[in-house]
Amino acid sequence: MHTHVLRRALVALLAASAVTLMVPASASATDPGQCRTGGGGFTSALKPGERLESGASLVPTPGKPELVMQPDGNLVIYLVSRPGGYKLPLWNSGTYGNPGAYATMQEDGNFVIYRKGGGPQQGGGIWQTATYGSRTDINIGATFVDDGRLVVTGRSEDYYWTTETIEQHVRVCASDMSWDQGYWAQSASVWLVLQQDNNLVMYRKSDGKAIWGSGTYGSRNSLTLEIRDSGDLVLREYDRNETVRWRSGTAGNSGAYALLQDDGNFVVYKKDGGPGKGGALWNTGTYNKI
To answer: What percentage of residues in the chain have a pLDDT greater than 70?
Structure first.
């Protein structure tokens, strides 16, 4: 697949079941045994007047996500399996087909991609964050963070813009730790991404192949992933009715949590369960696909 296309998984919806599922005893997880939010890390920034030239990238920490201004004109956020390993496109500006395009943080607070030879005085803008304005009480800039998000602080009244592609913890718990579109997590072997098309997809780090998906792409409203107090893992619409589009079928297990494991399995465990303890209520069955 070309790098300018944000990868989508056309995978079938797997049937959820309330039946307790067996997880191999060898299952492991990078899991400190607690629930916490994700995000943060080191940053790389473009100050007013600075440019990200064609072919250049922002990489706060080698081996972590990268922001790349591709030679084809597309600005892309990549997840990195390891230094020199496979890279999974997480977000892109959709500006491919413009060889030599570059991105710049303008003095007016706008972050803009221009065609080759274009600029604030010449024109040729093909994408922008629309954060321009006249406020002078803000330190403006474009910042790329280790957790995989691009953040622009401009001069408009609504001065904050972000891709919202924030890395999350490997545990999903019922303590107000829901995922929005663009959120993602990783174990040693896989990435789990709630895509902009509303599909929750697991990708194999070795080659980027999709090995599981919720089949919820194309839902009318944006979806949120959460564990309910009942223990049910659900993808629900972000609207007044909170319509559920997918569920694990594990209700009736208060305190249950979901865990993305190093063996490539995504598992819902009982409150006191976990790798080596048992108590699995549902899993993606992907432990043998990495």
So the answer is: 88
Residue 63's domain spans which residues?
A: 43-162
Q: Of 113, 27, 32, 109, nearest to 70 (Cα)?
A: 113
Domains contained in the chain, number: 2
pLDDT tens readout for residues 244-264: 999 999 999 999 999 999 999
CATH number for position 248:
2.90.10.10
Position 129: which residue type? T
Distance (Å, rounded) from C-alpha 167 to C-alpha 186?
8
Residue 1 has pLDDT above 60, yes or no: no
In this structure, what is the dihedral angle of CA atoms 66, 67, 69, 71, given to the nearest 10 degrees? 30
pTM for the predicted model, two decimal places: 0.88
pLDDT digits (tens, 9 = 90+) for 261-276: 999 999 999 999 999 9
Using CA atoms, how far residue 135 sits from 108, 109, 139, 156, 236, in Å, is: 9, 9, 10, 6, 38
